[in-house]
């Protein structure tokens, strides 16, 4: 009897590998036992299969969904990665329904989602990169601007862009960051702090009637870099109007024109664009620049809302410099997470 007990249990009281394997086989057998000889497995789950194929079509052809009614296409593109959550739900339904048709159909949205976002599941960051940049929408109603400033300084970034600066809070940020960043400029509600000298500071007209975008040339050890800071207008989701983003879209076009005319070869855009890289409304900007998160990021890098990030609307985009890594920083008192990137400035670029 003792010999039999020893054969079936390990020293720590658990089951041996043979017993665990037998349990797995029995579980698998239970799952498929009802399928054997069941001729209806191909007829059941037609609706589930149709929903799976429809979700695949929506993901694959999202750019063709019109914005005519409530900017539905842009709204969908803002939260496009989350459509992947439908796949495990449909998988459970297919298993419960014992539908082979639904299970096979589910392969289609799974492949489409992985093709679109699979690259974001793994980190692509690399060591190196001589310039670290950070952008943060600090929130005009921030109750602790000094603490937020200290958190940003602790990132060790070489260049920091802040958006949604309240005029009365600007002195607080200047005081908290001044000892580390000797060069800074504030234009309207956006500001730029740099460890390296800055020149050519000016407002960028994004067709708002007030100043929410700027550019400056930062003279890094590897050469000049044109740094743009922008806070595009907010978008709203309203029952009567849908996804209202007309002003945001107009401003994005103006920002894209300004960047296209930039004479400096190396360009970095930092800011809250109120849209994701998938949003077609930002094409004027995104078509000519690379996302550091997409090229070298760690995961999806969602930045808003800070309490439960659902989308990355805070962006670091580059042209003429090489992204090495990109990540989000710990939450501050803002409703956005700060985002950071490390880039390599090519000394051969002019």
TrEMBL record:
Instruction: Give me the segments passing through the membrane.
Output: 41-59, 79-96, 103-121
Q: Where is the Endonuclease/exonuclease/phosphatase domain?
A: 134-336
**GO MF term (any one):** endonuclease activity
Keyword terms of this UniProt record: Endonuclease, Hydrolase, Membrane, Nuclease, Transmembrane, Transmembrane helix
Q: Which domain of life is it from?
A: Bacteria
User: Is the keyword DNA damage assigned to this protein?
Assistant: no
**InterPro entries in the record:** Endo/exonu/phosph_ase_sf (IPR036691), Endo/exonuclease/phosphatase (IPR005135)
Q: Where is this region: Disordered?
A: 1-20
Which Pfam families does the annotation name? Exo_endo_phos (PF03372)
Q: What is this protein called?
A: Endonuclease/exonuclease/phosphatase family protein
State the organism of origin: Streptomyces ziwulingensis
């Amino acid at each position: 009897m003792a010999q039999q007990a020893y054969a079936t249990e390990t020293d720590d009281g658990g089951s041996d590998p043979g017993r665990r394997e037998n349990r797995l086989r029995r579980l698998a057998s239970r799952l498929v036992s009802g399928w054997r000889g069941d001729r209806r497995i191909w007829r059941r789950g037609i609706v589930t299969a149709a929903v799976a194929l429809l979700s695949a079509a929506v993901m694959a052809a999202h750019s063709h969904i019109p914005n005519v009614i409530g900017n539905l296409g842009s709204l969908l593109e803002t939260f496009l990665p989350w459509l992947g959550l439908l796949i495990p739900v449909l998988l459970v339904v297919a298993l419960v329904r014992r539908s082979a048709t639904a299970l096979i159909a589910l392969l289609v949205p799974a492949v489409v989602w992985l093709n679109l976002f699979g690259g974001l599941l793994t980190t692509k960051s690399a060591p190196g990169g001589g310039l670290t940049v950070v952008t943060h929408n600090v929130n005009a109603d921030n109750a602790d601007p000094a603490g937020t400033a200290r958190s940003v300084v602790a990132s060790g970034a070489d260049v920091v862009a802040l958006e949604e600066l309240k005029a009365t809070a600007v002195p607080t940020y200047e005081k908290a960051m001044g000892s580390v960043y000797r060069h800074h400029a504030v234009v309207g509600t956006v500001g730029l702090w740099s460890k390296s000298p800055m020149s050519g500071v000016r407002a960028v007209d994004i067709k708002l009637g007030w100043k929410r975008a700027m550019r400056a040339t930062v003279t890094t050890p590897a050469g000049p870099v044109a740094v743009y800071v922008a806070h595009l207008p907010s978008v709203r989701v309203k029952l009567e109007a849908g996804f209202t983003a007309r002003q945001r879209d107009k401003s994005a076009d103006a920002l894209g024109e300004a960047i296209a005319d930039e004479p400096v070869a190396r360009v970095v855009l930092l800011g809250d664009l109120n849209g994701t890289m998938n949003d077609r409304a930002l094409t004027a900007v995104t078509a000519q620049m690379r996302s550091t998160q997409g090229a070298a990021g760690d995961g999806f890098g969602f930045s808003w809302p800070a309490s439960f990030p659902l989308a990355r609307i805070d962006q670091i985009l580059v042209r003429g410099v090489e992204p090495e890594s990109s990540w989000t920083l710990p939450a501050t008192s803002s409703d956005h997470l700060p985002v950071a990137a490390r880039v390599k400035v090519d000394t051969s670029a002019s």
